[in-house]
Target: Selenoprotein N
Amino acid sequence: MKYVILCILISIIAYWYLNDIFTSEEEFYKVRDVTNNIQNIFKELDKDENGVLNEDEFSDLKNSYSILQKDIYGTQSKYAVQEFPYFSIQFGEQVVNIDVNFKPLLLSSLAKNVSDIEEEKNSMLGLLNWKAPYKEKHPFGAKSFSPFLPTKEDIQPGFTWWIVEPNNDKYSPPLSNERYYPPQVPSNLLVIHALLSLFHPHPFLWTRFQPQGTVAILRAIDDNFYDIIFRIHAEYQLNKPPLHPFWFTPSQFQGRLIINKDSSVVKFFHMEVPDTKLNVDMEWLNGPSEDSMEVDIGYIPQMSLISSAISVPRDNERGANQKLHDIKWHAEISVEEALNSLELQFFPFKKVKYYRRTLRETALASPPILEILNTHFISFWSIVEDLKEIIKENSDSAASFFARVCLHNYDFPVESIIFTPNGSVIHRININALLGLVDEQESFFEIRDPVEKNYQEFLENALLMSKAIKVDLEKSSN
Model:
């Protein structure tokens, strides 16, 4: 009897499930596209024939028609998608166990008050639901890390090489916002994709904008081992269709790998988003057009990977014989020097001496601009939160005075302000205005990057204005 009851229950569930599917499909195929008949529909709804639909007339629309929103992004990708790559660990190969440490973004760090934006919560759903990493730990074969090895053998500390080369230059348009799933990556880069996927299953190895790619530097060397420092610029898509895209772009991933020269032993691996006050950029769409884009920056307390021990033989939990501190490097540079060298690979303009942070515009890579800045300006760059902190810490200091000048003249998102030592503002320009000038001047026959051209003009005009101020002061003093 119990088998009969079980069969009946299965039959009922199957009938209900299949009936629901076929009913849904049947109702879908009954939908008629009336786009070409829209003018007649308007006349039908316009009862008083005044050429305008009032609220009551428009409400009648739902009595006769069903409004379907067009899925402009599609649920299927138009390209081959990269799934999480599972690496086979060969017999006798040593295993690297990677632990994942993740604490979600602090919503209080956003400029937006998330609790006050109910209409945007659907767009931010991927962020709000991201409370834990995709995987808490994962094993890798030591050989999987071979793509991190330097491209040459006879090298010394300070040698740099690209692991993931940028796939566009400053004259190329940015990659599309309208993507949800990471495209397939070359086999030699699967390990980087896998490492990034431990946090979230949809990483993109190539960001939409510069800086882009992964670069490494040899920090130290001995007879058998390399100490490698690397830096990754990657981003994540947190939403899925039918939600609009939400891009999550960490400031960078810094990492360190101690590996022997044939990649059979990994002594140490660590990778993290640096713990700075604001370390993530976010962009999302609240509607189908680019005009609905929102941007914000925030703080993620922890997003890191670390090897739980030295790589070990698959059948041995005690670890390799040689411990990490037993390595005696024959030649080395400091970690700080290595990180600075990596930064120069992404931002050549940092060869100019700056104070605080740097601006990431390509204009600052221009030799004429670098020459002007070196010769005539003391340059410093900061984020708004740092300026506020300076004022809070010591409101009477010279740094606090200049911080107030900057905040008083700042407009979102990026402002370049030139002022004299006494705080008088000579000239200023917002990045939106700078890019607006580019749109007005855009030409297929432009040889030089228009952003560089306009930024150089901005600096040169400021120098002329400062000279005029100096002349006026000299006249008034006489």
User: Anything to note?
Assistant: The longest strand covers residues 94-103. The radius of gyration is 29 Å. The longest helix spans residues 2-30. The mean pLDDT is 78.
